Amino acid sequence: MPKRFNWQIGRDQFYKYEGKPPKRQIAYVFDTNKCIACQTCTVACKTTWTSGKGEEYMFWNNVETKPYGFYPTGWDVNTLEKTGPGAWKNGVYLGKTVFESTPEGKTVNGYLPTEEDWSHPNLGEDEVAHKIEEKATYELPHKSWMFYLARICNHCNNPACLAACPRQAIYKRPEDGIVLIDQERCRGYQECVAACPYKKPMFNAHTGKSEKCIACYPLIEKGIAPRCVQTCIGKIRMTGFIHPPEKADADNPMDYLVHVAKVALPLYAQFGTGPNVYYIPPIHVDPAYLKQIFGPNVEKAIALYKAQDPKLVGLLSLFGSTDHWVDSFKVQNGNATGYQDGKELVTVPVKEPVVFRALRDKELNVLRKSVT
Amino acid sequence: MDLFEKKVTRRELFKQAGVGAFALMAADPLFALLKPVAGVDNPLDFYPDRNWEKLYRDMAATDEWFTFLCAPNDTHNCLLKAYMKNGVVVYLGPSYGYGKAEDIYGTKASHRWDPRCCQKGLALIRRIYGPRRVKYPAVRQGFKAWVDAGYPRGADGKVDSKYLQRGKEPFVRVSWDEAFKIVARSLDNIARAYNGDDGAKKLLEQGYDPAMVEAMHGAGVQALKHRGGMPLLGATRIFGMNRFTNSLALLDAKIRGVGPEDALGGRVWDSYSWHTDLPPGHTMTCGHQTMEFDLANAENANMVICWGMNWISTKMPDAHWLTEARLKGTKVVTVACEYQSTSNKADKVIVVRPGSDPALALGIANVLMSEKLYDDEFVKGHTDLPLLVRLDTLKLLKPEDVIPGYKNKILEKTRVLKAGEKAGLPITQEKQIITEALREEWGDYTVWNQATGRVQALSRDEAAQAGNWALEGTFKIKTVGGEEITVRPVFDLLKQHASHFTPEVVSDLCHVDKDAVLWLAREMAKNKMKTLVAVGMGPNHFYNNDLKDRLTFLVCALTKNIGFPGGNIGSYAGNYRGAYFNGLPTYLLEDPFHPELDPAKTPKTRYYSKYESAHYFNYGDRPLRVGNKMFTGKSHMPTPTKSMWFSNGNSILGNLKWHHDVVVNTLPKIEMIVATDWWWTASCEYSDVAFGVDSWGEFKYPDMTAAVTNPFFQIFPKTPLKRLHDTRGDIEVLAGVSKALAEVTGDRRFIDYWKFVHEDRVEVYLQRIIDNSSALKGYKIDQVHANAKKGIPALLMTRTYPKYMGHEQSVDKEAHYTKSGRLEFYRDEDEFLEYGENIPVHREPVDGTPYEPNVIVCGAKDLIRPKQLRDYGFKKDDLGTETRQVRNVILAPADVIKTAHPLRKDGFSHIYITPKFRHGVHTMPVDLDIIAVWFGPFGDIHRRDKRMPWVGEGYVDLNPDDARALGLEDGDYVHVDGDPSDRPFRGWQKKPEDYKVHRSLMRIRYYQGIPRGIARSWFHMYVATYGSVEGQAKNADGLARNPRTGYQAMFRTGSHQSATRAWLKPTLQTESLARKDMFGQTIGKGFAADIHCTTGAPKESFVKITKAEPGGVDHALWRPARLGYRPGYESDAMKTYLKGGFNA
């Protein structure tokens, strides 16, 4: 089995196929501190792509409350149990990835959710980790807590689904790294459904094929951000393209947040698939839980986030202000600007100015009062 | 033919397999695709055939788009893009046009406002095209029979119950003309039946309170009620209900044979106060409906306190302002009865007992006053705290009491109207306006001048001026009559009163951390002009809401947090402020006897309709008469409800508090119920006539709205989407019924009144409103309409962008809209003195408390002198639900926790609250499948547990320790029962069949985020109806769906409203409170709908929770609990996971 270097776990690991990395790799950053679990992303995706027969239970995008929320039920508890506990040391994951703990005959150590596991998509909504006491007062970090985890397909560098498919019907687009299940060649073995540790491929019993988030590639190809990103009213998301750490460009928002400011972290990097959705961790949550989900750098990321660096604050205030993907940005003079292919998309003030109108408009003979 | 266009079944495949395969391959297009598979060795290296990707490109491709405005009562009003393919909308999205909004002066909004939409808006595609649209005008079978039979009545006027079987019959489709005729003729018949002395006699025989009958003044049209739901949401089509009601003066003229001078219009129900969105203490403190600030102001503050206001779940498109402010250093605090959604965005989370907010505010005030942390100058200038109170009468000391020959000052900053003088249109009004009579009645005020050591007179013209006046002290002075009296400043009284609310006492009373009380006070004082306090409907939906307002206002005023971009108070609920369009009177009150047919001219206005609160209808169609006293002031007095017509609001019937009582006990007294809606709600279930109207995506007439939480002025654009059903526009329905009334009465002015609807030129009405509105004048409707079609809104032109209230007072030093011109914390009106609320006391909730309900909590017993039950004719104490509304027993703050709610001895254990959440705006669009399945943990699109009423269902949240103590498992079905004396409806003991329909049955969820003693169900879900309960029994699939109407319930029986009821508070029904009128600068007194008006207490209940059925079907537990994923049921793996134990 070939090996490849996975910078997210600081070491080489097994992966079924050799391959050159794509020309560009799509990536997303989600700021969990802004997510409001409104499920606008969920409904945007649902109404665009999965309104057909066999897709009734499917939500390619979902937002689950951690720690008691899951879609499908218990997905990460199950995957963590399968791969077993593991430790980090100096940025290197010493435990086993899903490719390194595989049972006999399987390429990936996964499990197939039952049909009922897909019920109750909002199990655990808003539920906190511990019973709150009477007269409770919390400061950071909260003694009892919950946070929202918005999830889509991670369009991984080492996709477990791709490795598991017996027909090689899953591939990664060379132009942008988007991972797709070929709807023509898929025969519905559901090996991808079992393999993906994030449980993002979903089986359609009516067509007999598995399907999953496609990163809205028809929109990406037109310069437009995916539906879940452009409809996010929490303004928590940005889409762009990420470089590997050694090629990081500080004016590229993905590179900046992940490699330079280091506030955005991969989800369950220890699974070893190299996910490309990066999360700014919730600053109020128990660090022990956070390390399990976002890795050992989580406390550092929180401290850096809280430091309110002007470039970071400017970029995060830019999120959501354009419905295009952004490959470059600038923060200067109290404004943040997003660009695509060198063209300005939008400029916003980091702080919206307060404007006082003149009370009396003599020409129109009207008074612009506050209380009318 | 592409493989994807033809679904290949296995049967087809095998059918072909028998024939020579190669021959077929050549001939049949299907087999042409079965090329030998190109082997894919390494999909990471090379993928041979990507043509299939066309599939998703085709799905995403659209031909065109248009915009429409999504505007339920969430206050946001989002322009949505509807993407179309072949004339069918395929999906919806945000317009991204908010960053292009501009006013006529070049003020621009930035793209930080974008995107604006939400999950409910995007799900509308399933509502616009959904199966439960009201597809045509429909009349209930029994009602039609009554109409066709010629409106037979008994001698007392009553209609035979066989015609009143609402909710139990099919609906008959009629033509539009027929529907209009039926409603017009019925309005006429009902008005005539109850007109004059004969009508009054019938009403008295039917048992209506004589005061209500008297309030009709003999005009039968006064028994006709109308409501456009949150009318700001449609200046012409929803507010049009008010206009229609005004025109009923033409009907009255016909019936009574009177002229325009004596005619009366119909009755209009309130909106803001109906929802209990009005914070009634705001009116008492600042003189107008509400002070608030656009939520975008969050980043101007150092600290934002979300006080019972679940910002990120109820103001979702503006949540980012809060989180971005926090990102930049603003401290976010939640004060709530649980760890709520917004708490996960908070730097400080403070948990407090629901309904105890007035006491918490007193605790904070105590710290501010005793530690001298208040802003001396602000308090002396902008509040009534330096004004003197005489201790003998507890009335404010008047200058004429002590200054011989004192004459009231001539007011220069206030315009005083002589008798008969008119104020003019609101847009012309510059100064605040008071009639001479009121000016003389209210007089002037006094303070203690510390320099001279004497009483000094102050008028409202001296508002915002601070002088060297005492805040503390007791002064002995002589009246002009020679009597020696003691006077003290209001501040001194409040300081004494607040001193009983020490941090320790407040901690025990409010179940709050005592250090949090100290912290809040000191942090607010440290952040003067930089603390925004957003108070929500958590505290406002309790009976003590006016006290909560007066006291939260006090805390903000003491710390100079009123009227600044980063320092202010706000109350957040629905979208009410019709006053932004203060040109509306030209439309609402256009004189129906002389309609203005020239589009260029401004109409004459004449006020014919009367307003009243719908809470009286809710209460059983009666006023608050308890013992020997009528507590409902004359100006508030409702009339009997013999007909009700409402549009755009399920909240007036389908989801009103005490819904189940209204259905059983009040609806039978009403002769016609007309619902205008585009979706079949429980209001439609119980109606007689349902007018099916255009969905927001199908508007053929433009309309306009604005918002209380954002600065945009918005148009509802006309859309190109062809109507899907036989629907009309809301305003067409008004015009249609009016046209039918023209036929009934012979008065063609009923047609003229809606001339511009008939000519498809409603822009005339819109432009008239714009030209006469202070915040709109300068805009042209055609231009703003054209921009809206591109997804771009305009900006409301008030004093500031973003908007906020109080700038003119705190900075420009103008007066508040109160008698004294200052923020008022002391109320010396007779009613307040009688009810013991001259100082802002705390009252325990009227039902939702484990302690003695509605007791006055006050340690300064010498400062209040309330009447007691014996003064109202009661021989014994009575804690019954109706009597306790007027019960004024006083307890010291430390003694409250020694008492008990009377139902505790019967096993009732929990405060039950029903707040708002993210998945619904009221009930919109909660019953859509893709919304219902996300609403809480029990959603299941495949409904594997066939007991579920729908793919999602109502539930109650309980602390796991409480649940276990009650023998309940996570997922069980339970009954949540309120006070059996009147819930779920009065007389349930004698009506077992109805009881089965109306008693609540719902699941319980183990919820660790709520303290013990509190149970919570969300407010939004579709209630069970007779039809839905019948459906669950009869339908093969077991869905709780009415087999006749298709109504889809989300409860098996009952609802969250099974435990709620109507409540009426005396202090909200006075004749003497000063308040600004709805439109313009005039200050009047007494009743004003949505301003000074009773509000109810929707959150209040004290309940018993008992097990009905186990959570699982084949097992006792529902599946997630059985598998070990639920709190209290965690498997070992789950326990490890919770601790982060997989990170070794």
General description of the model:
The complex is a heterodimer of chains A (372) and B (1144). Chain A is of the alpha+beta class. Chain A is built from ten helices and 21 strands. Chain A is globular, with a radius of gyration of 22 Å. In chain B, strands 5-4-25-24-23-6-7-20 form an eight-stranded mixed sheet. Chain B has a six-stranded mixed beta barrel with strand order 33-37-34-36-35-40. The two termini of chain B are 56 Å apart. The model of chain B is unreliable at 1-8 and 16-32 (pLDDT under 50). Chain B contains 40 helices and 40 strands. Chain B is an alpha/beta fold. The interface between A and B is large, with 130 and 151 residues.
Low-confidence runs of at least 5 consecutive residues of chain B: 1-8, 16-32
Order of strands, widest sheet of chain B: 5-4-25-24-23-6-7-20
Radius of gyration of chain A: 22 Å
Helix content estimate of chain B: 25-40%
Shape of chain B: globular
Give the low-confidence spans of chain A: none
Can you tell me the overall shape of chain A? globular
Number of strands of chain A: 21
Total strands of chain B: 40
Beta-strand residue fraction of chain A:
15-25%
Gyration radius of chain B, to the nearest Å? 31 Å
First-residue to last-residue Cα separation of chain A: 75 Å
Q: What is the oligomeric state here? A: heterodimer
How would you classify the helix and strand content of chain B by structural class?
Answer: alpha/beta
